[in-house]
Amino acid sequence: MLHAEWKEFALTPRFPLGTSKGVIGARTVWYLIAWDDARPEVKGIGEAALFPGHSKEFPADVRTKLLELCADTSNWPQRLNDDLVPVPSVRFAVEQCLKDLGASGSKVLFPSEFTLGRQGIPINGLVWMGDKATMRGRIQAQLDAGNRCVKMKIGAINMEDELDLLAEVRRSFSAAELALRVDANGAFTHANVMPVLERLAHLQVESIEQPVAPGLYEVMTELCANAPLPIALDEDLIGLNTLEAKQDLLDHVKPQHIVIKPSLVGGWAAAQEWIQLAEQRGIGWWITSALESTIGLNAIAQWTATLGVSVPQGLGTGQVYTDNLPSPLMVEHGNLYYRPEMPWDLQRLEP
């Protein structure tokens, strides 16, 4: 018989994580832990990591669903396509938990060259918002670390300062030497976005994520058709849990790219559906984390490694916390690696 419990943890960022939607000063995640009577020492672990301000679910939804799951473990696989669909972070936690239990609690969920430590996943270096001087230092740190794709959060400080920072980078590195991405998190409006897009295109910015708020489908359709640089949908994917809704979004808006966060769209199966629909329409895609701890990041990274990706993914967030769970995940020279010789330390999850 399967047994389960859940634990709630607060993670502490190394510095305030600034976005156009505000500053993240703490991060709450939930761990779902399951074991079987036959092997009680083997425990599968999954992480639910909703993202306040982005997710359609709320902490109370997560806690309620985890209580239900732990009270009745008899039909978890069936529930993945039933009542868990509207709570995507919990759905993903169940996927992870069952997969890890099937892997004897090893955390090696998708064996590959990545989990053997032989191959890395290309990632972008992420520059969080701050004042101009702070952001300049963070950009330099990403360059010094060997990243050749840098994504900068924009839309919260003075736009001229942000454009100046991008121009400084471009004066030192051509587009062939360094890819620049920006993420607006919906900071702009229909009235002010196009001049910004034109200036970003002049700086040969590779793409902009979610330039206007999610749900402004007519505005986004117009931008995707006329903007001078590629647009990637991010928050607009969240909450679309049926095949028909996903098809309607992609067919109507016609973005150049989509950004897929498994924790926010409902896990591996839901993310795979987005990928299939995008590829059928010639739409580019990449996978990103959503500030999970190393449990969730590991689950996303190992799965991503099976997809044969070549463009940088957004999986470099494991270092933002002072108290993350020690794991074999390491960022080196613009790639994420899994070092199997490095142990997991899960003592904080023990009773």
What does this structure look like?
With 351 residues, the protein is an alpha/beta fold. It has 2 domains: 2-102, 2-Layer Sandwich (Enolase-like, domain 1), CATH 3.30.390; 121-349, Enolase-like C-terminal domain (TIM Barrel, Alpha-Beta Barrel). 34% of the residues lie in helices and 21% in strands. It is built from 11 helices and 15 strands. It has helices at residues 59-71, 76-79, 88-102, 132-144, 159-172, 193-202, 217-226, 243-253, 262-265, 268-280, 294-305, and strands at residues 2-11, 17-19, 22-24, 27-36, 39-48, 121-122, 125-127, 149-153, 179-183, 207-209, 231-233, 257-260, 284-287, 329-332, 335-338. The strands form 4 sheets. The chain has a 7-stranded parallel β-sheet. Strands 1-4-5 form a 3-stranded antiparallel β-sheet. A 3-stranded antiparallel β-sheet has the order 6-15-14, with helices on one face. Strand 11, helix 8 (243-253) and strand 12 (257-260) form a beta-alpha-beta unit. The chain is globular and about 60 Å long. The relative contact order is 0.15.
